[in-house]
Amino acid sequence: MVFMRHYEVMIILDPSLDERTIAPSLDTFLNVIRTTGGNVEKVEVWGKRRLSFEINKNAEGIYAVLDLISTPDAVKELDRQLGLQETVLRTKVIRREPAKAAKTAARIAAKAAAKA
C-alpha cells in the first residue's frame, strides 16, 4: 500500500506572466500528482506580491499555492519539474499535519475502491 500525505506547495512565478494563464499552466504539472493516484485539493493564485529580496533581478513575483494529497515521490517529481521551468522563481514544499491527511487519503482510497 502506498502512503498518501497532505502537502502544501508554494510557487513564486515570474511577474511578467499573465495571471490568467497561471492556473491552466500549473494544471499540466499537476498531472504528475493525478497520474499517481493523488488528489489536488485546491489551487490558489494569490497574484503579484512584493518579494522581501530580489530573485533573478525581480522585486515582485506571482504567488500560487497548491494543496495536494499525494505520495512523497510524486511531490518530489512535481518539485523537480517546476524547478526546471524558467518562469518559476522559487518553490517550497511543506508536509501538512498527518491526522487530516489520513482522513482525506482514506476517503480517496474508498472512492478508488468503489470505482474498481
From TrEMBL:
It comes from Saccharothrix saharensis. GO terms for molecular function: small ribosomal subunit rRNA binding; structural constituent of ribosome. Binds together with bS18 to 16S ribosomal RNA. The keyword rRNA-binding applies. This is Small ribosomal subunit protein bS6. It comes from the Bacteria. NCBIfam families: S6. GO terms for cellular component: cytoplasm; ribonucleoprotein complex; ribosome. PANTHER family: MITOCHONDRIAL 28S RIBOSOMAL PROTEIN S6, SMALL RIBOSOMAL SUBUNIT PROTEIN BS6M. Belongs to the bacterial ribosomal protein bS6 family. The gene is rpsF. GO terms for biological process: translation. InterPro entries: Ribosomal_bS6, Ribosomal_bS6_sf, Ribosomal_S6_plastid/chlpt, Transl_elong_EF1B/ribsomal_bS6. Keywords: Ribonucleoprotein, Ribosomal protein, RNA-binding, rRNA-binding.
